[in-house]
Amino acid sequence: SNIAKPIAAVALIAGVALFTASLAEFGPLAPLSREFSFGIPSALIVFGAYRLSPSTPRWLVEIGESSYVLYLVHGVVLSVCFRVVKKLGALETLGPQVSAWLVAAITVVIAYFIHRWVERPLLARIRVWQKARDARAVEPAPVA
Q1: What secondary structure does DSSP assign to 48-97, as a single string?
Q2: What is the predicted pLDDT for the residue at 2?
Q3: pLDDT of residue 47
Q4: Residue 16: exposure state from Cβ atoms within 10 A (0-12, 13-18, ≥19)
Q5: Helices and strands (H, E) in the chain, number of each type
Q6: What is the pTM of this model?
């Protein structure tokens, strides 16, 4: 509705302000635990961005769909990527912040590819097997 847009805008702005204040360790939420000082602003940001967004771009949906794979593989992939970056000397060349962003981006891309070419086909195959199994379970037993 039209009323929800201004509320969403206020939530988004307040979320960003509170998050920034929590990062700087001042503001109304700073004395609270990390879950509250960052959780509440994060929730406001997500709510505001979601309500203001006309539609989510397909590439973001795809990345979101690969989030479980990202959760499963991020530790190993991050570790390997940082070792490669360090071995190549990129850590000194690019600096720690750029290297961290590069490794994070590579990790997301790898998780997406695993999702796209491993998880998605595997889930499709499982659905086919389940449908076949369910169809056999519904069939009447042969009459002897």
Answers
A1: HHHHH-SS--HHHHHHHHTHHHHHHHHHHHHHHHHHHHHHTTHHHHH-HH
A2: 66
A3: 92
A4: middle
A5: 7, 0
A6: 0.59
